Amino acid sequence: MPLNRRDFVTRSAATAAGAALTGGAVVAAAPAAAAAEPDTAAAKGNKRKPRRQAFTVMGTTDLHGRVLNWDYFTDAEYVDKAHNAVGLAKISTLANQVREDKGWDRCLLIDSGDIIQGTQLTYYYARIEPIATDGDNVPDHPMAVAMNLMGYDAAALGNHEFNYGIPTVKAFEDQLEFPLLGANALHAKNEKPAFKPYVIKEVWLDEDTPIKVGILGLTNPGIAIWDKANVAGKMVFPGIVETAAKYVPRMKAAGADVIVVSAHSGIDEATTYGDQLPWPEDASGEMAATVPDIDAVLVGHTHKEVAQRLIVNKKTGKTVVLSEPLCWGQRLSCFDFEVEFADGHWKVASVSSRVLNSNTVPENPEISNAILGQHKKVVAYVNQNIGTSKIELSIADARFKATPIIDLIGKVQADAVKAALAGGQYANLPVLAQAAPFNRTALIPSGQVKLRDAAGLYIYENTLEARILTGAQLKDYLEFSAKYYNQLAAGAPVNKDTLTNAEDTPDYNYDSLYGLSYDIDIAQPKGSRIVNLSFQGKPIDPNAQFVLAVNNYRANGGGNFPHVATAKAVWSNSDEIRNTMIAWVKAKGVIDPADFFTDSWRLVRAGQPVF
């Protein structure tokens, strides 16, 4: 059985005792005596002299199923250009180093969400051997195993927790030895919390009085859009700022000396809700600026590294410290508090934050060994042979020109929708398909194709839907997508590194449309870039109707693309697009770009191709 936090503290005490006998460093496992100043209460009529003490709150976010420093899509150790490392096994080593330095009872460890989606490891225990299973043989979730063993004190819900449905996230919650928090994740029927809103942890800084640290968990209101099929009519997700304003006073009234918010929400990124929801997506900065009595915020959702951001609360003038560690266990945030005991309770004297890099330490073998059997099982699963490919298909140039690997996604989706609509009232409408370059390292090799090759091309748990749009609406859709490019005058030098991701548009919000032909004139301002738009060799009819095969994220409004969220829905499927792709390759046997690649779009400037 995995060790829990109590086992960790006990083991640390034993280690400290051994270190004392051998001359090593001693770490106290019992509550430590105050170190700042001697207690002179007796001499001063029991009036306690102010004392300063220190403790640390550590935080992770957007782990997305990473336990080991392993990439299941490449079947090799994780590697990137910056030499980062990923996974809880590395974070565990960092966290234990902080505990050894600060004192085990002076540290808390929390997370701000997106835990159970993102790798084939976690997909396997959601879909292949699902944890949301009745009976006596429910498998352990590897993220629960690792996080319990590491001694997490709390975690907030992320939006991706709901990708597999409410039963799966509830089953995950049941396996945790710490609370899964979501103050703004409410039952739809009565708007009461479906998860624990907050927890108050006692941290013993001396033998007399613990400091009470309140941890509030908040998740992203966008769940109502992005996972509409899983949560509609079952749960609602009100605003982050409004919910914090409701619960922070309750936590103070319940005795919390310190308030730390674990928020699955960025600091100051632009929203992607449009007019679909009244609340901003990335509201951690607004929350810090407007809700009194928050001391620190562990930020998540945006996959960015923010070592420290200081925001002054407009109502109190108090400085709030925010930190976001880089996703996937690449960084560990540390909020270092100094507190002072005065007037019968603890007050925050100072707080600062920093991030630690997981590539500086080895994996903790206790963590890696605890899930080794599950890891091997998943490695075998992803290395199944599913077909062959005539040539190598790379995604490397997919942001800049039409490529067979993106057209493969379009072809699979279009075929699935055509088959579903066959014989029905929409069977005669032309079917197009939306696709985006999700994974910049995706590659389907020449020769044998494994399951992990297809899974690496479509890394999200999206499902497939079909919506009806007109030719005019499709042009609007493409114009919106084309804002992905920075404007570049004709004749100006082309730098691929700065050409894309304009206005911080992520790759997954850059769609091409399979079945149409068009040019994107990047010398023009956004909104006026789509030229020569045609269907089957003729200019598109603005009034003609088309069926668009589209993933559920986009269909429900993700990315705020025009028209699609309100378009007529004619079909939907509950299986992941990834599985549809795998089944397509198995059925075909051979991937041959001649069967689907159309070279249908290009970047131009004043009619001249950029590439």
From TrEMBL:
Keyword Iron-sulfur carried by entry: no
Catalysed reaction equations from the record: a ribonucleoside 3'-phosphate + H2O = a ribonucleoside + phosphate; a nucleoside 2',3'-cyclic phosphate + H2O = a nucleoside 3'-phosphate + H(+)
Membership in a protein family: Belongs to the 5'-nucleotidase family.
Domain Calcineurin-like phosphoesterase residues, every copy: 56-304
Cleaved signal peptide residues: 1-28
Domain spans labelled 5'-Nucleotidase C-terminal: 386-565
One GO CC annotation: outer membrane-bounded periplasmic space
BP GO annotations: nucleotide catabolic process
Protein name: Bifunctional metallophosphatase/5'-nucleotidase
InterPro entries attached to this UniProt entry: 5'-Nucleotdase_C, 5'-Nucleotdase_C_sf, 5'-Nucleotdase_CS, 5_nucleotidase/apyrase, Calcineurin-like_PHP, CpdB_N, Metallo-depent_PP-like, TAT_signal
Cofactor(s), by name: a divalent metal cation
An example molecular function term from Gene Ontology annotations: nucleotide binding
UniProt-listed Pfam families: 5_nucleotid_C, Metallophos
Keywords, ordered alphabetically: Hydrolase, Metal-binding, Multifunctional enzyme, Nucleotide-binding, Signal
Subcellular location: Cell envelope
Gene source species: Kitasatospora aureofaciens
Main localization (coarse): other
Keyword Membrane attributed: no
PANTHER family the UniProt entry points to: 2',3'-CYCLIC-NUCLEOTIDE 2'-PHOSPHODIESTERASE_3'-NUCLEOTIDASE (PTHR11575:SF6), 5'-NUCLEOTIDASE-RELATED (PTHR11575)
Domain of life: Bacteria
